[in-house]
Input
Amino acid sequence: MSSLRAGTARGRSARARGGGWTPWLYLAPALVLLGGLLVYPIYQLGLISFLEYTQAQVSGGAPTTFQGFGNYQRLFADSQFWQVLAATLLFAAACVVSTLLIGCALAVLLTRVRALPRLALMLAALGAWATPAITGSTVWVFLFDPDFGPVNKVLGLGDFSWTYDRYSAFALVLLEVVWCSFPFVMVTVYAGIRAIPGEVLEAASLDGASQWRTWRSVMAPMLRPILVVVTIQSIIWDFKVFTQIYVMTNGGGIAGQNLVLNVYAYQKAFAGSEYSLGSAIGVVMLVILLAVTLVYLRIMRREGREL
Output
């Protein structure tokens, strides 16, 4: 009898050891695909950033040489890089804050209007969300065109050019980025609000809490995991803005006054044929976004323990 139990235990142990590989076998095709689409390009990006790789090397006119951290030293010694990095951080922060404020406000509004206005707002927001970035950017440039755009005529601004001044150009791009980004925040937060028990909101109302106090003291704490997700994702998206800046400021504005890191890397790599320097900028962006992602994962783990 004891030998039978021992055999059964050994069989279970063997099945457990064998079963440990089963999930990885199912994940293997996806991991191979992700490795080809993500790992290898990142490896090539990092490799090129350590080489001297310009148009001469691409055409075979000069040998490829190893530069070590030389490209990074050139990059960090360039004052324009730090100006562009600061502009990118400030612009992304402004986009994230504006997107969250508008998205959360409209999510609360959706819970307080009737079905027909709610449906109309949802459809309008989803239409903005589904519009391709290049199409939305082109439409916004037309709307604010100093000669043919209706916005200047309605506001009485005459031939004021929104893209000539650095700050008005950034403001115009910010409006377009928020316009196509707030629906994600609105829909996500609205779904979270609908999941809050009605008794909790009713109790806050009976206690005489204002709408702002209800949001700050009741809704926001209960929606914290959702707000963390939409904030981190908005940071990643807005930090990588390319199409809106490139289209609406004609490649970065006058004398590069509206450059962000993505457009700056594009200009260095393709307009200037300094592919290694453009790759170094890409690696710097990757490191920054990885740091943001790690913060996101740490916060989510902490929120998971609290929940």
